């Protein structure tokens, strides 16, 4: 093709693009950020958010991912959470944490976070220990390179029921036995003396409470990912 012919063809293509700018979309380039760190989260209504607060971009998870990105740790997350669910207690859709683990955890995850659950009150403690260990073990088999972080159940006041303390102690023992990190929101006094962070139902965090959770949990996740 002569140089004149090449120029004419090029000019015709330029005119076509200018006349029909929507065609440019055919040449859009999708850039995939290879730095994304894959994380899975399993939880209950403290993670799903409720009418009290924490829905959508106001949830602690969404806030935590934004905070981590600002610190140079961009995260791609799979969050599987169900209201009323626990390790042994089925949630509103019939799922327990084991079901949520199978749904959320992927082989390339760098971290798996379990958060909760106060909903396991009334579950036999032996069954709770078996279920929790099985869930942590399942996560380890699905994502063998992932670190595991178990966060016990929080409570909105300082007068924590014995049944919730027992859940906390079982999960602590399971995490230690499985070689996982354990964080105790009760021992660390999350929400204690902070009624402004809990909704009118006296149970669930409001939007400010979810912001508070993100402030607590995002650094825990960043620490795990840096190890």
Mind explaining what this structure looks like?
It is a single chain. Helix 5 (125-142) links the parallel strand 3 (111-115) and strand 4 (147-151). The radius of gyration is 23 Å and the shape is globular. The chain contains 7 helices and 5 strands; from the N terminus they run αβααβαβαβαβα. It is α/β, with parallel strands linked by helices. It has a 5-stranded parallel beta sheet with strand order 2-1-3-4-5, with helices on both faces. The chain has 2 domains: 1-30, no CATH class; 33-225, SGNH hydrolase (Rossmann fold), CATH 3.40.50.1110.
Q: What is the overall pLDDT average? A: 88
The N- and C-terminal alpha carbons lie at a distance of 59 Å
Q: What sort of overall outline do the alpha carbons produce when their principal axes are compared? A: globular
Q: Could you please say which CATH topology of the largest domain applies here?
A: Rossmann fold
**Could you say what the CATH architecture of the largest domain is?**
3-Layer(aba) Sandwich
| CATH homologous superfamily classification of the largest domain | SGNH hydrolase
Helix-strand pattern: HEHHEHEHEHEH
The oligomerization state is single chain
Provide the gyration radius in Å.
23 Å
In short:
A five-stranded parallel β-sheet has the order 2-1-3-4-5, sandwiched between helices.
Q: Features of this protein?
A:
single chain, 227 residues, alpha/beta, Rossmann fold, five-stranded parallel sheet, 7 helices, 5 strands, 41% helix, globular
């Amino acid at each position: 093709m002569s140089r004149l012919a090449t120029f004419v063809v090029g000019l015709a293509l330029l005119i076509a693009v200018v006349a029909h700018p929507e065609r440019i979309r055919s040449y859009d380039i999708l850039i995939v950020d290879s730095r994304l760190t894959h994380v899975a989260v399993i939880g209950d209504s403290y993670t799903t958010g409720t009418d009290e607060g924490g829905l959508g971009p106001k949830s602690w998870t969404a806030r935590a991912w934004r905070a981590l990105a600002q610190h140079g740790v961009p995260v791609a997350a799979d969050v599987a959470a169900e209201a009323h669910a626990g390790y042994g207690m089925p949630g509103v859709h019939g799922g327990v944490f084991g079901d949520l683990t199978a749904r959320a955890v992927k082989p390339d995850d760098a971290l798996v976070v379990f958060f909760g659950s106060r909903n396991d009150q009334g579950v036999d403690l032996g069954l709770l220990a078996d279920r929790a260990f099985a869930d942590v073990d399942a996560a380890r088999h699905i994502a063998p390179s992932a670190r595991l972080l178990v966060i016990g159940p929080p409570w909105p006041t300082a007068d924590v029921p014995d049944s919730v303390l027992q859940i906390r102690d079982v999960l602590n023992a399971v995490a230690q036995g499985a070689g996982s990190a354990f964080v105790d929101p009760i021992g660390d006094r999350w929400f204690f003396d902070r009624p402004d962070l809990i909704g009118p139902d006296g149970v669930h965090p409001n939007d400010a409470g979810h912001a508070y959770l993100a402030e607590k949990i995002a650094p825990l996740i960043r620490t795990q990912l840096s190890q």
